Amino acid sequence: MGLLDDLRADRRAAGKLPRPGADKQQPALLLIPDISGFTRFIEESGSLQAPFLVADLLEILIEANTLNLQVNEIQGDAVLFYRLGPPPSVAELVRQCRRIYLDFQNYLRIVARDTGSELAAALHELALTLKIVVHYGRVSVARIREYTKLMGRDVIVVHRLLKNNITGSEYILLSEGYLATQDPAALQQAFSWTRLLPGATYYEHLGETPYHYASLSPLRLLLNSPEIDDDVPVGRGCALKVRRALRVPAPYAVRVINNFRLRPRWMEGATAVHYDVTKAGRLGTSYKVDVFGGQIDFQAVQQFEDEDGRLEYVEKISHFRLFPNSLLFYGFEAVTLDACLVTMELRYGHIASASRLVRFGQLRRLHRFLGRSLHNLAELVERR
Q1: Which SUPFAM superfamilies is this protein grouped with (predicted)?
Q2: Helix ranges restricted to H, the chain
Q3: Residue 349 and residue 207 share a domain
Q4: Are 49 and 182 members of one domain?
Q5: Which residues constitute the domain of residue 251?
Q6: pLDDT tens per residue, range 76-112
Q7: Quick check: 238 and 349 in contact, CB under 8 A?
Q8: For 229-286, what is each residue's pLDDT tens digit?
Q9: 158 and 271 assigned to the same domain
Q10: What percent of the chain is predicted at pLDDT more than 70?
C-alpha cells in the first residue's frame, strides 16, 4: 500500500472529521432504532398490556447492543444511541443492525404465539416493526445534572432522517456522513444479503439530504432460526437444552417453577430472590435472583397450553452480560397422570465476547448450570 492509500485509510478510520477542536465538538456515531406502528398499536390495540410490551421491546433494543453504544435518551418509540470516536466498520454496523432486528422480531413472535391472548390478537392485526437510522458526524456533549445531552447540527440531521421518502417500514438508512467513512467495496460486501439503494429527502433548513437504505425484510427468513455461532456444536444453534422426567403431575411442576420464593431451593447457585409479593404470579412480573455472587433479572413473559396439551412457561432474562436478550423456556409434557417430562431451554441471540475460548467456556458452564438446576428441581418436587 502506498503513502496515498495510507492517508486515505487514515481518513476513513477517523471518519473524515477532525479531532475535537475549539468548538468542543467530537466525532460520533448516532444510531436510532425506531419502532414503526407504535402510536397506532398503543391507541388501537385495546390491550392494557400494550404499553408494557413496548417497554419490553425498548429494553430488547438496548440489550441488543454489540458496538458498546451509549444510550443518550429514550424517545417514546425510539432509542438514541451514540458512540464517540472513529466509526465502526460497515461489517460491524450491519451485524449490530441485524442483531437489533432479529432480537426485536423474535420477541414479538414469542408473544404472538399465544393465540388466545388479547395482546397476541392485537399484534396480528397491528404489526410492529423496526427501522434503523445511522449517521456519523460531530456532536457537543454537555452534562446537565446527571444527564448527558448531545447537541449540534448532526443530532438534528439524524432525527430528521427518521421522516423520509422510503417506501416501507423496516429498513436500515445510512446517511452520507457515515457512508463517506467506508470503502465502497466493503459496503457492497456487507449488504450482499439485500440491496443498498440511493435515496434523498428535502428538509427545511437542511436542504436536499442524500442517503442510502436497505430493506430489513430479507432477515425474516432467519426469525426463530438464529444465526449460528461458530463455537456452538452443530445441531444446537443458539440454544442450550436439558430434559428430565419428574415423578409429579405437569401442573404441579408448573406451579413450583412459577413460585418465585422457591427459586433458591432449586436454581443452582441461587441464594436469595427479590420481588414484589403483591405482583407475584402475574405475567410481566419481574424478579431478581442472587446467583454465584451476582444477580440475574428475570421477567415472566408467557404461559399457555398448546393444541397437544403441552404446557409452556417463558421468562426473559435481562442484564445477563454475556448472553443479552436471552429467553428461558420451560416445557411440561405429561407422561402419565403422575409424571411429566420437563425441558429447560435457554435461547440467546449472541454471546457478548470476542474470545472464542470465553464463548465456548461460558456455553459449557451455562449448560452445566441448567442441568444441575433441573436436577435440583427434581429432588425438590419429588420430596413432597
Answers
A1: Bet v1-like, Nucleotide cyclase
A2: 3-13, 38-44, 50-63, 90-112, 118-125, 153-160, 176-179, 184-190, 250-258, 263-266, 356-381
A3: no
A4: yes
A5: 239-381
A6: 899 999 999 999 999 999 999 999 999 999 999 888 8
A7: yes
A8: 434 333 345 899 999 999 999 999 999 998 999 999 999 999 999 988 766 555 678 8
A9: no
A10: 88
CA distances from 107 to 25, 102, 104 (A): 38, 8, 5
Last residue of a domain, one of 157, 192, 222: 222
244: Cβ contacts below 8 Å, ≥ 6 apart? 341, 342, 374, 375, 377, 378
Q: 196 is written with which cell numbers?
A: 443498498
pLDDT of 133 above 90: yes
Say which CATH number the domain at 286 has: 3.30.530.20
Task: Please report, for residues 228, 290, 349, the alpha-carbon distance to residue 294 in angstroms, rounded to integers and kept in the order given.
Answer: 28, 6, 22
How many angstroms separate the CA atoms of 83 and 337, rounded? 56
Measure Cα distances from 286 to 56, 64, 233, 279 in Å. 11, 19, 32, 9
Identify which of 252, 268, 285, 269 has the alpha carbon closest to the alpha carbon of residue 383.
252
Residue 377 lies in a domain: yes
Question: Residue 16 is part of a domain; what is its CATH number?
Answer: 3.30.70.1230
pLDDT tens sequence across 319-348: 787 888 899 999 999 999 999 999 999 998
Instruction: Using the 3D structure, point to which of 222, 254, 282 is the last residue of a domain.
Output: 222
In-domain check, residue 75: yes
Return the pLDDT at 19.
Answer: 53
